[in-house]
What does this fold into?
Amino acid sequence: KAGVTQTPRYLIKTRGQQVTLSCSPISGHRSVSWYQQTPGQGLQFLFEYFSETQRNKGNFPGRFSGRQFSNSRSEMNVSTLELGDSALYLCASSLGGTGGFVNNEQFFGPGTRLTVL
Amino acid sequence: QKEVEQNSGPLSVPEGAIASLNCTYSDRGSQSFFWYRQYSGKSPELIMFIYSNGDKEDGRFTAQLNKASQYVSLLIRDSQPSDSATYLCAGTGFQKLVFGTGTRLLVSP
It folds into this structure.
């Protein structure tokens, strides 16, 4: 079974631009979560989608948004990029369902390394 | 107070020794806990998860959960240099995982 894929793997943008990242979950997984990882803050939760619905959102500004499609693929968008948005963006998929993450392992993609200049 | 706390390390152990990684959590509502391994420049890789009090073994790895004391641990037996990585502990929150900042493990030959 193929793993979680993310595109692009690397991205360089300048301040003020916007960016869209894509994530394809493991086949059969309906939940996709997004995380931001920086050396200082570790893994920070951005949001989680299940069946095209955002079920939870972390403490990030409204410049960070996402969506999920009917095939469970997900995109996240960051508008008006700031230098502090430079990070590794990870998506993770799980089976999801009403049990949430209890007993449902979450599997990470390789990440997108975003550099904002 | 962070919801999931880990000692950042590094924890240094010689090859063949047992490495003990610890994690404490503050949310008593957390039901399951996950251990991930992350090599430098790579994404986290799931090692195992535990949701019942007690021990759970998988090969060289043993996860331990004590809900009364709110701590989780990961033991790595017969540590190998290839085990050198950052180990992330995560607990379930509402529709999300809450991660600790990770413990860096160094296994010397």
Q: What stands out?
A: The interface with chain A takes residues 31-32, 34, 36, 42-46, 49, 51, 88, 90, 92-102 of chain B (CB under 8 Å).
